[in-house]
């Protein structure tokens, strides 16, 4: 077992993330006083606070595990626009760490702190993740359009004057790909007369069409990102925390907003065609081992590593001193208390990791409501 496989090392990474996250959430709570006074200042501060938390996860991916993400682009001139405009990013949802690969690209193009998602309402209750998203004005959905419509529309419309360049990351499939979900999803496709997909679930168009409608005058483009991993690897978040290195390939295509239909039905049809193209891209990847286009590896920035070292430095010095003094005291009660804290921290870290596990993600495919997705 190597150093990176050590549970103690994993616990250290988790402790820094959990402890700093709670501190960041507390600061975010205090910044709420700015909202009625200066909303844009509140947003700029929270963009940076969110970056300070999310970049720790990116650090684990790109610095700790050494995983590299390669973009494949037909139009390399589009590279100059990444991170310099508001945009909607459409990602396939096949892997536990697909969100990390998306955040990795957001970090390298300087928009990680301002990245938004349409998140499951259940995540609002998850400490650190849900709480940080709440302060970042992320829109939470219950996946019941009749209940979500007003909240989603209001939440997205509120972002129209966001002062920082932002990416709105969308998983239009609504849940991670599994064979069971795919089978049911294709039954829905057959019932609606839509083409079958081999590598994706049928996209749920409401989230995309609503997001584009609300932000059409704000975002400049929609970027389609199709992710796969070399050598057929299927990485997990725990693998990355253990330092396993992977090679991620991402096909990236830019679609200017003015080329996407404004009519809701036509816009939904555009999204279905996009997923048929994504399916063809995946087929080509499995056949040839690469996506079409020119490979580009964006430069890695040092800020995620420096941010982690900052938090580790200010947190672990007092924690280590405390632990040493407790052990040196010989007080059994204090020692048991310290061990209890470590156990609780360990459980918290495992709970956070489990949020990303494919087998634990829910889906409404197979119930009547899922057939209302278009």
How would you summarize what this structure contains?
By secondary structure, the protein is an alpha/beta fold.
Q: Determine the N-to-C terminus distance.
A: 49 Å
The number of helices is 11
Class based on secondary structure composition and strand pairing: alpha/beta
Whole-number radius of gyration? 21 Å
The low-confidence runs, each spanning 5 or more residues with pLDDT under 50, are: 362-374
Number of strands: 8
The main sheet comes to: 8 strands, mixed
Beta-strand level of the residues, as a percent range? 5-15%
**How would you sum up the global shape?**
globular
Reading the helices and strands in chain order gives: HHEEHEHEHEHHEHEHEHH
Helicity range of the residues? 40-55%
Strand order of the biggest β-sheet = 4-3-5-2-6-7-1-8
| Mean pLDDT across every amino acid position | 89
């Amino acid at each position: 077992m190597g150093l990176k496989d050590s549970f103690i090392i994993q616990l250290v990474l988790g402790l820094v993330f959990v402890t700093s996250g709670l501190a960041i959430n507390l600061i975010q709570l205090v910044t709420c006083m700015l909202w009625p006074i200066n909303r844009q200042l509140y947003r700029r501060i929270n963009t940076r606070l969110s970056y300070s938390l999310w970049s720790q996860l990116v650090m684990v991916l790109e610095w700790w595990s050494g995983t590299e993400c390669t973009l494949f682009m037909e139009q390399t001139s589009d590279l100059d626009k990444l991170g310099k405009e508001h945009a909607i990013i459409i990602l396939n949802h096949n892997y536990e760490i697909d969100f990390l690969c998306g955040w990795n690209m957001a970090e390298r193009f300087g928009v990680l702190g301002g990245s938004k998602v349409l998140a499951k309402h259940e995540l609002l209750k998850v400490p650190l993740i849900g709480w940080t998203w709440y302060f970042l004005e992320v829109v939470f959905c219950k996946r019941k359009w009749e209940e979500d419509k007003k909240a989603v529309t209001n939440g997205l419309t509120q972002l129209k004057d966001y002062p920082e360049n932002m990416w709105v990351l969308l998983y239009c499939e609504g849940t991670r790909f599994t064979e069971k979900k795919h089978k049911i999803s294709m039954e829905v496709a057959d019932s609606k007369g839509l083409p079958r997909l081999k590598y994706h679930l049928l996209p749920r168009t409401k989230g995309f069409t609503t997001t584009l409608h609300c932000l059409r005058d704000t975002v400049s483009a929609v970027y389609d990102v199709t992710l796969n991993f070399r050598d057929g690897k299927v990485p997990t978040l725990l693998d990355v925390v253990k330092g396993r290195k992977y090679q991620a390939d991402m096909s990236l295509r830019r679609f200017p907003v003015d080329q996407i239909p404004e009519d809701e039905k036509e816009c939904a049809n555009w999204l279905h065609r996009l997923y048929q193209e994504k399916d063809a891209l995946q087929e080509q990847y499995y056949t040839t081992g690469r996506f079409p286009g020119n490979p580009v590896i964006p430069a890695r920035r040092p800020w995620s590593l420096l941010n982690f070292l900052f938090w580790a430095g200010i947190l672990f010095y007092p924690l280590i001193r405390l632990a040493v003094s407790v052990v040196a005291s010989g007080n059994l009660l204090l020692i048991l208390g310290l061990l209890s804290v470590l156990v609780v921290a360990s459980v918290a870290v495992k709970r956070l990791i489990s949020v990303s596990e494919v087998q634990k993600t829910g889906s409404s495919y197979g119930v009547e409501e899922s057939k209302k997705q278009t």
